Amino acid sequence: MSIVVRDVREHELDSVLALNNAAGPAILPLDAARLRHFFDTAEYFRVAERDGSLAGFLIGMGADSAHDSSNFRWFRERYPDFFYIDRIVVASRRRGGGVGRAFYADAQSYAEMRYPQLACEVFLEGGNDPALLFHGSFGFREVGQHVMEEAGVRAAMLMKPLCSYPWVRDTYGDALPEVEWLTRRRVPAARAAQAAAALAPRPTGTCP
């Protein structure tokens, strides 16, 4: 009955897509190309397993991402550095069983080593008190509201300060220790390709 949170695998993308598009109006729909873009570029893309089956997923990225969401841009116009939770989806049969809290604990353990704040939004159309209560109980507070230009939906913009970050930054700077729980995260395909190109031997006689 334990919940396992781990990096998404490429062969699971179809199942993730179906889970997203069955989530209802609180989550914007995706198509396969958009989900593939997240797989290739997202800094954090993890799934939860419970009893051997997919129970949900969470996608997130840092403030320096090229993400094109208007909600993401709203935060970036106002805050210099943060980790943005683009979407979290929990399968309907698993809601209320701790999967959401497991995701947020995992995402926070990742983010607080690298960012001073967590950011996300909750759609307000039609009433969404359970989601607002969940985020409030996890330490998020509303910092404004925004109507998404691409969907016409009003969202409460939420942020949570990550109190461990200043100590981590002052102690380690950008050189975090090479311990498994910090380094085992996925490297997006696009970033891996860039890293491989940077390490490839250069033809002799060329400038760096």
Fraction of helical residues: 25-40%
**Low-pLDDT residue spans:** 194-208
Strands of the largest sheet, in order across it?
1-2-3-4-5-7-6
Largest sheet: 7 strands, mixed
Enzyme class: transferase
InterPro entries: Acyl_CoA_acyltransferase, GNAT_dom
Organism: Lysobacter firmicutimachus
Protein name: GNAT family N-acetyltransferase
Question: Can you tag this structure with a few keywords?
Answer:
single chain; 8 helices; alpha+beta; transferase; acyltransferase activity, transferring groups other than amino-acyl groups; Aminopeptidase; Acyl_CoA_acyltransferase
Question: TL;DR of this structure?
Answer:
It is built from eight helices and seven strands. The protein has helices at 13-21, 32-41, 70-78, 99-111, 129-137, 165-172, 180-183, 189-199; strands spanning 3-7, 44-50, 53-62, 83-90, 117-123, 141-147, 154-161.
